[in-house]
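At this stage, I put together a protein sequence along with its fold in token form, as given directly below:
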Amino acid sequence: SSRRAYLANPGPGTKIERPDSGLPSNMLDRSPNQVESELGWPNFAVILTTVQRLDWLYLAASGHRRAQFEWTGNSFTATYVIP
């Protein structure tokens, strides 16, 4: 049933005038079968990326926590910082 979310038309990220799921009307109250669900395949892509820096923030009522991670190609550092 999760595959239904990828059948939106127009595709993900398309600007629209009013709130809408983009789902075909025949999919609003049922899950697609295998063949129908494969129609969402064009909405996927392979993305290759290299992360060099990451800033992590954990929000909690007892106190937030933050850390920064950096990869320089041959070494990795992690540092806690004040949120």
Observations:
- Helices lie at 34-37.
- The radius of gyration is 20 Å.
- DSSP finds one helix and three strands in the chain.
